[in-house]
Amino acid sequence: MPQEAVNIIGAGQCGTLLAIMLAKQGFLVDVFERNHDPRIIDAEAGRSINLALAARGINALVRAGIYDQIEAMLVPMRGRMLHQTDGNAEFLRYGQAHDEVIYSVTRRDLNQVLLGVAEGIPNIRLHFRQQAIGYDARDCTVHVRDLNDDSLYEVEARPLFAADGAGSIIRRSFDGSDTFGGIETLLQHGYKELSIAPGRSDQHQLEPNALHIWPRGGFMLIALPNPGGDFTLTLFLRNDGDPGFSSLTTPAQVESFFQQHFPDVAELIDNLVDDVLYKPLGLLGTVRCRHWHDRGNVLLIGDAAHAVVPFHGQGMNLAFEDCIVLDHIMRTEGGDWPRIFRRFEEQQLFNANAIADMALENYIEMRDTVRDPKFALRKELAFELERQLPDNFIPRYSMVMFHSDIPYAVARERGETQRQLLHEFTAGAERLGDVDLTAAIIAAKERLSPLNEIKVDRTL
Ligand SMILES: Cc1cc2nc3c(=O)[nH]c(=O)nc-3n(C[C@H](O)[C@H](O)[C@H](O)COP(=O)(O)OP(=O)(O)OC[C@H]3O[C@@H](n4cnc5c(N)ncnc54)[C@H](O)[C@@H]3O)c2cc1C
Question: Who contacts 151 (Cβ-Cβ below 8 Å, separation ≥6)?
Fold first, then answer.
């Protein structure tokens, strides 16, 4: 019997993991990627260099049997190191269990492992320098340009998985129709990446097991550790205005901006002036759709379906979660593509919208709310309630980052109830001892149903 064939556009993180999972189910998978093979030429240079990997992403990599190859490349980040303007720094743990950590991973290394695994699977064919240029819904074909010789050809949607990222040409081919109803919303803030080289003996020059944040109200600088002893920094700032990237146009302006806002780290940054002046400005945005599928022919997946801003470190984690959710559904629904795609959308679309919202909210928390003296107290109370009521209360950050069995939409809804509760019980308090803990525990039990009633099984 001939193998059933499927096509994927995009060999990014989502397209490649999806290819591996579909191939393991026995499909013949063709993947069309516009860039060169990044193992030969890295066309992604300039995109975020490293990423935070958390439970949802890890869960998917374990399920695909790849995690063992990635584990050695990870740098654990146990919490946030908050750097004040006066040079003082405070470390706040992300979670309280020993294994509640997130991991910094280099995008290039991760993509290379994924592609290496995909290449080793005989029923996956990777086609690089093949650019999808549009989708024709009437005859269900994608028009593709072979960038090696400029020739054009067509690929059938039999079905087609569009994993072609936030600017998906497949999604945009449907603009003007009701099929996906995609809306792209650009943030008024952009980003530039900077770096701190390794110190003596390749030691990190800042605490390695932390995600560093310099919160400055309307903007922030962050740093994630890399395995080689260096750090990748990202300056998130308004595109226009002052302060804004448009007002950082001369060496003197860049130096003065960093001396004023980031004096403790400015001298550690390599090529500070040139990188701020000449590196391309990264854009940030959110993609929301009403639907993700065109009958049983096309499915949007990963950033193509739901790009989110990076402030919760969840875009890739969500894209990986998509792959296991789809894999589960396919194993139970047989070959009924319209039904599979409908069920996938039912399970993931409202979750994607929830993390899109939480990611936007987290930008305000990271750049501003963390400076509120009550922030640490609320975190302390949240940890105490988690210890006292592990079946009812898990801090929202932990639900998102460490609990892949709690859907994002549940984390958002419960997180709001918990936020109100934490504000209420810390209102007149300066330290945990001032909080009426007994009343807080009673209130939490009343307002939050047991978590085991809402958990989903992602380990099938
Ligand atoms: C600054 C920044 C920091 C981030 N940090 C984190 C983080 O810490 N943690 C996290 O989980 N996520 C993070 N993300 C989000 C993460 O990068 C994305 O969610 C993830 O890469 C999405 O994977 P994807 O495969 O869906 O899309 P992509 O990685 O964009 O892959 C799409 C692929 O499709 C290809 N393609 C595009 N168009 C075509 C075409 N027309 N024809 C053929 N191929 C095409 C592209 O070349 C690419 O290879 C961050 C994003 C940014 C911008």
Answer: 145
- Model pTM score: 0.97
215 lines ligand 1 (CB under 6 A): no
Ligand 1 touching residue 165 (CB < 6 A): yes
Instruction: Give the number of the atom of ligand 1 that is nearest the alpha carbon of residue 169.
Output: 41
Every domain of the chain with CATH number 3.50.50.60 lies at 5-74+107-185+286-363
Q: d(Cα 138, Cα 154) in Å, to the nearest integer?
A: 13
Q: 298-341: per-residue pLDDT in tens?
A: 999 999 999 999 999 999 999 999 999 999 999 998 889 999 99
59 lines ligand 1 (CB under 6 A): no
Ligand 1 mean position, distance from CA 398 (Å): 24
Shortest-distance atom of ligand 1 to CA 317: 11
Strands (E) across 107-200 are located at 124-128, 130-136, 141-146, 151-156, 160-162, 183-186, 189-196
pLDDT digits 0-9 by tens, 214-241: 999 999 999 999 999 999 999 999 999 9
Q: 46-70 pLDDT, tens per residue?
A: 556 899 999 999 999 999 999 999 9
Q: Which atom of ligand 1 lies closest to the CA of 164?
A: 34
Neighbours of 209 (CB within 10 A): 15
Q: Is 395's C-beta closer than 6 angstroms to any atom of ligand 1?
A: no
5-74+107-185+286-363 has which CATH code? 3.50.50.60
Query: What is the spatial distance between Cα 294 and Cα 390, in angstroms, rounded to a whole number?
Result: 42
> Per-residue confidence at 44, pLDDT binned at 50, 70, 90?
low
